[in-house]
Specification:
Helix content is 37%, strand content 20%. The protein has 172 residues and is of the alpha/beta class. Strands 1-2-4-3-5-6 form a six-stranded mixed β-sheet. α2 packs across α3 (94-110). The longest helix has 19 residues, at 132-150. The radius of gyration is 18 Å and the shape is globular.
Length: 172
């Protein structure tokens, strides 16, 4: 069932169902909790499933600017959903990075760490720093994406990003 979660000065949409150990599903950019609909239906038979919509996705308010317009962010939202008992984090793409960062913060002792992590296609661009050639290319693509967004040319930003992501580089 979908429910609204008030958190400081924002309200987030979140799906939750079932009972037992918690599975927290974190969607990719461009998605919502609905990307997990089949897994949520299956796993809610044996687990408590929790799948928030991140800020700007699903039914949640959009980011007003690149700077966080709220006093909360996606990490705060995810942290607020962690139950007292055992939980597992499942993330896809940018959701995988958020799940990984949540686990990293948990292992510093800030709160209970997850029992496990299941990360699907985490974009770990920072790993490219060990290769000057690849890091230079990544920086060039990043600059082009940011420039296109600043010019309100979202189609160009998407072409540049997807060209890099899937291995076609018409932009570079």
């Amino acid at each position: 069932m979908e429910r609204a979660i008030p958190l400081q000065d924002a309200i987030f949409n979140c799906y939750s169902a079932g009972s037992g150990p918690a599975l927290i599903f974190v969607h990719c950019s461009g998605g919502s909790h609905r990307q997990w609909r089949f897994a949520l239906a299956d796993y809610s038979q044996s687990f408590q499933v929790i799948a928030p919509d991140l800020l700007g996705y699903g039914a949640n308010p959009a980011w007003a600017s690149p700077a966080n317009p709220y006093s909360v962010d996606d990490f705060d939202l995810l942290r607020s959903l962690i139950p007292d008992g055992p939980y597992h984090l499942i993330g896809h793409s940018c959701g995988a990075v958020l799940a990984l960062e949540t686990a990293r913060k948990a292992f510093t002792g800030a709160f209970r760490p997850p029992e496990s992590l299941f990360l699907i296609e985490p974009p770990a661009a920072y790993l490219l720093r060990d290769s000057a050639k690849n890091w230079t290319l990544f920086e060039r693509v990043s600059r082009q994406c940011r420039a296109a967004i600043a010019a309100n040319n979202y189609a160009k930003a998407a072409r540049v990003f997807m060209g890099f992501w899937i291995g076609h580089l018409p932009c570079c």
